[in-house]
Write a structure and sequence with these properties.
Layout (H helix, E strand, L loop, with lengths): L8 E4 L10 E6 L8 E12 L4 E6 L5 E5 L4 E5 L1
Antiparallel strand pairs: 1-6, 2-3, 2-6, 3-4, 4-5
Length: about 80
């Protein structure tokens, strides 16, 4: 019997660790006793580590979206 493959998810602490095409999630903390909520998921298009922004092609909308790391955490999905 085959097992379902689960993605390996790691937190990205520095945007210079990301490369074009990497799959990431942006997560927002909603409270002290709640888990982070995934607000965006997509592939990296461009990064600007100096200002803490990464642009992705959002899988849900199919549009390019900016993620500000001051507002949410970034996680690599592999």
């Amino acid at each position: 019997m085959l097992k379902e493959a689960r993605p390996h998810i790691t937190r990205v602490r520095a945007l210079d660790q990301l490369h074009r095409g990497d799959e990431i999630e942006a997560r927002l903390s909603v409270g002290p006793s709640y888990d982070d909520v995934i607000i965006r998921r997509g592939s990296v298009q461009e990064t600007a580590p100096g200002i803490g922004v990464v642009w992705i092609m959002d899988h849900h909308t199919g549009m390019r979206k900016a993620i500000n790391t001051d507002e949410c955490s970034v996680w690599r999905v592999a």
